[in-house]
Amino acid sequence: MKVLKRLGAAALGAALTVTSVFAEGADGGALIDALIKKGVLTSQEGEEIRAEMLNDYATTPGGFLSVGSSAVKGLKLYGDARVRYEYDQQARTNGTAQERNRNRYRLRVGAEYTFADGYSANVRLATGNKRNSTNADGGAGNSIYGLDDTIYVDVASLSAEKLFGADWLSASVGRILQPHNIAMGWTWDSDITADGGVLKLGSWKVADGVTLGTTHGAYIWTDGTDNPFTGKGKSDVWLFINQLDLGAKLGKNWKLRFSPGFVSAIGSGKNNLITTTPAVNDVSDMNVFLLDVALDTPFFIEGVKGKLYGEYGVNLSADDFGKRVLANHDSGGNQFFLLGYQIAKGKGKGAWTLDATYAYYEALSWSAALIDSDWNGGKLNGHGIGLKLGYGLTDNVTASVNWRKSWRISSDISSSDLGGGTQKASDLVQVDLSWKF
């Protein structure tokens, strides 16, 4: 500020005392007079500082010092970290098994900015070197860093509430947190953020206790390069998700969310040429009708809440896709579903959750690039169960144990990307210690 620039180092402490008095509403005159008598300030300097401080105090909102610019109304810094022990085993059709023990960690650090006029921005950095895993492996030996110790941009988005003055319209663009109701941690890997944009319409109150809204997203999955010298066209893959969100209160402890939608893709896959058979691990062959449902329920233990959730999907493009990539495409299947129930008590220290799930994903029902990488070895053509227990050690520290067991559905599929090949079953155990800051 101008006041501090006018003072030497010897007078800095006294000047801060003066300015603190101003911040509390006094005029600071007595202190300035005392500094003049001690010879720290001349009479002329005292009067000039008094005038400048009065002007600064009148024009500074909420205090003497401000960080950032007038356009930033609020700033929140946040982050989380996790250490994990992981054991997984894959049984093979020849009777052998492949085992793996890993010590892993994850770090995510971000900032949320709230601007004027309803706009906000979110930036987050994370460890890992894959879109579907923010984990890094420990045990690098003599090396300080392992191959997974990359820090990358996990989120970089700009959002607007009440867009164009409409209370019912909001939007986000950039690398955003996935905003749709698609079973996080199962159908859509919770580590995958979406590159593109989303519009949310609603929620409108259509009846007493009933709300209705829609969510529309367009995301770029593979951004290919045109090659006019060979006559090949774009190989970009775009993913479109349109979903209806219906909410209803059915009583004091019952609440329903009903979310039908359609997931579709255009483009030729990650092999970059429009005439090339798409890779089975891409998203380019999906036209999926999706239904995601959640029902909050009462539970017989006092203070414990229950949630019943489920999801169903059918891929209408599976038949053409199977003919291109599978020797026996009829064995692939085009449907998936999951059913789970969660009970939870409290928040913070002493809180706990228990979640039990059954999942079933046929080989051509969804994309192996989007499904949870911890489920069935990150492959489709599997079904099985999951059980997760979490407990709050403090308000910011949580411990959890996650167990998942799966078996393949069809043994007639040769592609290992679809969960065929020699994989017969999979076991996974994860022990996590997580903290937020």
Strand content: over 45%
Q: Give me the count of strands.
A: 17
Helix content: 10-25%
Q: What is the domain tally?
A: 2
Q: Please provide the ordered H/E string of secondary-structure elements.
A: HHHHEEEEEEEEEEEEHEEEEE
Main sheet properties: 16 strands, antiparallel, barrel
Low-confidence stretches: 1-27, 58-66, 270-278
Indicate the overall shape. Answer: globular
Short synopsis of the structure:
With 437 residues, the chain is mostly beta strands.
Provide an overview of this structure.
By secondary structure, this protein is mainly beta. It folds into two domains: 2-59, no CATH class; 72-436, Porin (Beta Barrel). The protein has five helices and 17 strands. The chain has helices at residues 2-5, 12-23, 29-37, 43-59, 318-325; strands at residues 72-92, 97-115, 119-126, 136-137, 152-160, 169-176, 194-207, 210-222, 237-249, 255-266, 287-298, 304-315, 335-345, 352-361, 382-392, 397-408, 423-436. Strand 15 and strand 16 (397-408) form a beta hairpin. Helix 3 (29-37) runs antiparallel to helix 4 (43-59). The protein is globular.
